[in-house]
Amino acid sequence: MDVQALINEQVTGNPVVLYMKGSPQFPQCGFSARAVQILNACGVNKFFSVNVLENPEIRAGIKDYANWPTIPQLFVNGEFVGGSDIMTEMYQEGELQKLLEGLADAA
Amino acid sequence: MMHPKTIEDLLREGLPCEHLTVEGDGHHFEAVIVSAEFIGKNRVQRQQRVNAVLKGHFDTGVLHALSMKTLTPEEWSAQRG
Prior knowledge:
A: 4-stranded mixed beta sheet; disulfide oxidoreductase activity (chain A); redox-active center (chain A); Monothiol_GRX-rel (chain A); metal-binding (chain A)
């Protein structure tokens, strides 16, 4: 399967998907760690995560998929939401909590 | 390693800004970008506009960690109260 098709399958097949460096238990980048913390703060403790450090093809392909050059990247219900700045802002405004309502333990 | 001033210059060249600050230690940067071009754009579209200006530097990996706040002039003056 080509990598864009694989990413498409991941983001449409799971309600909450986080592409990150490291794992939710052991993030290997401060921005990825922040993204996990924010999801947890929104009550989402189980979600589909992809460690791009272990998947070089996805690491390269994800930048084109959403036309977004950096990791982490959050997708909710197949839609690209943003990176860690946008997650932080949306969390501070209460928008992310709304978006994630009902998606706790969604993995 | 990049100097914050380099990023600032690239942004000024590629995007009309009413206000722009870039701070950083050479690896991680924080930018506040105020531009009328953000009017009518959502958060993702705003960052995509900024990233388009810096694209080559993300691609080479020189720049990998830029946090940014993207505001319209109106949002900027509201935030300053």
